[in-house]
Amino acid sequence: MAEKIVAFITSTNMKPGDRLPTEQRLGEQFGVSRSIVREAIKYLTATGLVAARKGVGIYVAQGTQLVARPAFKFSMVVDPEHIQALFEFRCMQEMITARLATEQITLVELRELEQIVQANRAQAEAAQQERFMESDDRFHLAIAHATHNPFLVETVASILHLQRWAVKVMTGGSPGSSLASVEHHEAIFEAIKGGNPDTAAQAAQHHVETVLGWYRQEVRRRLLGNSDGTTLLP
């Protein structure tokens, strides 16, 4: 049901902030009960795709981009098993990219990467979340470009696009996650700078696996709610 709602949002060209039909209307449209729709909305809210405002309605979440690059279907990563597969794929991808970048990076690219890491830290410390996520993307894309492999660059860009919403969920609810990510980036950078491909790959693996852990923790927190029993919604 969650995938059908995502397909409805994309097919009707809805944008962040647009209001979805009511649970009852969605149930009538898809021929299912309101309780099934409610569970799907609860899941999509927990994963950061929609925002349910009590007494107001259901909206496409701000910053959500539901149209993926042609090579990938966004609906693939609505399913929890696909989310796991996405992180597993990205982990392998980032390890290979970090290793190759260590071997191929130029001095100009190394200086550019260092500047991105410095900006990344400054934005995290200033709690500039949107700018932090932009520089986070630039960091990973800069490493991909340093491999001088256009296929890796395109694949990294596509996966970052798909995973952006998951990162927004994680950074929105995991205290200290942005600064911890910066420390991971710095470890990857230092390994690349030092010419240690194995260390760079291990640092990249640690980074992606840690982000997956944060994501799982935050989704679980939103689904199960606070210790007082209240459900957490964006």
Automatic annotation (TrEMBL):
Residues 1-63 form the HTH gntR-type domain. InterPro entries: GntR_C, TF_FadR/GntR_C, Tscrpt_reg_HTH_GntR, WH-like_DNA-bd_sf, WH_DNA-bd_sf. Pfam families: FCD (PF07729), GntR (PF00392). It comes from the Bacteria. GO terms for molecular function: DNA binding; DNA-binding transcription factor activity. Keywords: DNA-binding, Transcription, Transcription regulation. PROSITE patterns: HTH_GNTR (PS50949). The keyword Glycoprotein does not apply. SUPFAM superfamilies: GntR ligand-binding domain-like, Winged helix' DNA-binding domain. This is GntR family transcriptional regulator. It comes from Dictyobacter arantiisoli. The lineage of its organism: Bacteria, Bacillati, Chloroflexota, Ktedonobacteria, Ktedonobacterales.
